[in-house]
Amino acid sequence: MTLTAVLSSPPRQFHPAVVEPSLVDLFERIGVAMTFDADDEIYVQDDQTDLVYHVLAGAVRSARLLSDGRRQVGGFYYSGDIFGLETAPLRRASAEALAPTKVLAVRRSALMHYGDLGQRLESMLWRATGEELAQVRDHLLLVARKRAIERIAGFLDDIAQRLTGDWVDLPMARQDIADYLGLTVETVSRTLTHLQAKGIVQFDGCRRFRIRAPSRLAALVEG
User: Fold this and answer.
1) Are residues 106 and 94 in the same domain?
2) What 3-state class would DSSP assign to 218?
3) Domain ranges, residue 137
């Protein structure tokens, strides 16, 4: 989510938390800047959950290793988003940088020392945590009920809205998309090729695309 307002409308895909602009300065004042190269771990599964992160630049992937060895990607975070919001004492997923990334880390247990602003930030973080949990639930329902082409269309539509611009750069690999949508990488690649052949999207390489037929893509998203 970002530091501006917790989104109230239910998303088709996963939208992280947002922080109010008036609290960005507090986050910057008490946060510790950290930089990561692509594929660096920001935190690992089963770490303590006291730290919360605000993305300043780059992109982050959250992922959970399942008991059978498979990986489940929980979400992607970009500049302005907050991640690391959890209610349990130990993290249920890890977080890795998808590209060179800079974040601010804030320790929630330290917010009590910042008076009213600290209380407001803590209140916002709890609201954002509840919103993120609800969105994770919605995403799991989407994965369970939607066809592959509907999931992928929704993912592309969501990414295009979040990153904006005529051409959108995808920081994640095809395998990341597959693990996020509960599909095989072969299905993801085949479906993206199909959408391009139909003139709905256009790809420039594997990591850059644009939507050519927004109404047709929206129709696929709706199912």
Assistant:
1) yes
2) helix
3) 21-144
- Spatial distance between the Cα atoms of 179 and 158, rounded to a whole number of angstroms: 16
Sheet holding 41-43, edge to edge: 41-43, 94-97, 59-65, 71-78
b/e burial code for range 152-185 (CB count within 10 A of at least 16 → b): bbbbbbbbbebbeeeebebbbebebbbbbbbbee
Rounded to whole angstroms, the Cα distance separating 191 from 66 reads 26
* Token output for 173: 């690999």
Tokens of 163: 């990153």
136 and 160 share one domain: no
Per residue in 113-146, pLDDT (tens digit) is 888 878 888 888 888 788 787 777 777 777 778 9
Query: Is-contact 152 191, C-beta < 8 A?
Result: yes
pLDDT of residue 7: 33
pTM beyond 0.90: no
Q: What share of the chain is helix, strand, coil (3-state, %, to 5)?
A: 40, 25, 30
Positions of the chain with pLDDT lower than 70, given as ranges: 1-23
